[in-house]
């Protein structure tokens, strides 16, 4: 029983995606609130609440490039228009890589 619990916990650790969205003043003006809303909607619509974790963050150091978002350690610049597509592609790539193990 403990072995199954450990495997289940390990799978969550491997497959969970951390997404930090900058809500600092520059990113806020560029649409961070809208990025949060479209990502929340996508996550809820696709039943990914346990798999993708959204968090707010302050400056990620890319203020001139759009809304800064860190997805599993990589900082990207997103807009409300491309946020879902970028998240979906990165999530699918992460799942494909995890399935190879």
Describe this structure in words.
A hairpin with a 2-residue loop joins strand 3 (67-71) and strand 4 (74-78). The chain is built from 4 helices and 4 strands. With 101 residues, it is of the alpha+beta class. A 4-stranded mixed β-sheet has the order 2-1-3-4. The model is unreliable at 1-13 (pLDDT under 50). The radius of gyration is 15 Å and the shape is globular. It starts with a helix and ends with a helix.
Low-confidence stretches: 1-13
In terms of structural class, how would the helical and strand content be classed? alpha+beta
Q: Distance N terminus to C terminus?
A: 22 Å
Q: Please tell me how large the radius of gyration is.
A: 15 Å
SSE arrangement, N to C: HEHHEEEH
The number of E-state strands comes to 4
Query: Which strand order does the major sheet show?
Result: 2-1-3-4
- What overall form do the CA principal axes indicate? globular
Strand-residue proportion:
15-25%
Helix content: 40-55%
Mean pLDDT comes to: 84
Main β-sheet: number of strands, strand sense, barrel status?
A: 4 strands, mixed
Counting H and I runs of at least 4 residues, what is the number of helices? 4
Structure described in brief:
This protein has 101 residues and is α+β, with helices and mostly antiparallel strands.
Which helices and strands occur, and which strands form pairs?
Layout: H1 2-15, E1 17-22, H2 25-30, H3 32-45, E2 52-57, E3 67-71, E4 74-78, H4 83-99
Parallel strand pairs: 1-2
Antiparallel strand pairs: 1-3, 3-4
């Amino acid at each position: 029983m403990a072995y199954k619990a450990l495997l289940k916990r390990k799978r969550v650790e491997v497959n969970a995606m951390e997404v930090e969205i900058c809500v600092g003043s520059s990113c806020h003006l560029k649409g961070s609130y809208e990025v949060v809303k479209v990502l929340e909607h996508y996550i809820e619509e696709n039943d990914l609440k346990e798999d993708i974790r959204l968090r707010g963050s302050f400056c990620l150091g890319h203020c001139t490039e759009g809304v800064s978002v860190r997805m599993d350690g990589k900082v990207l610049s997103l807009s409300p228009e491309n946020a879902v597509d970028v998240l979906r592609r990165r999530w699918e790539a992460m799942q494909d890589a995890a399935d190879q193990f």
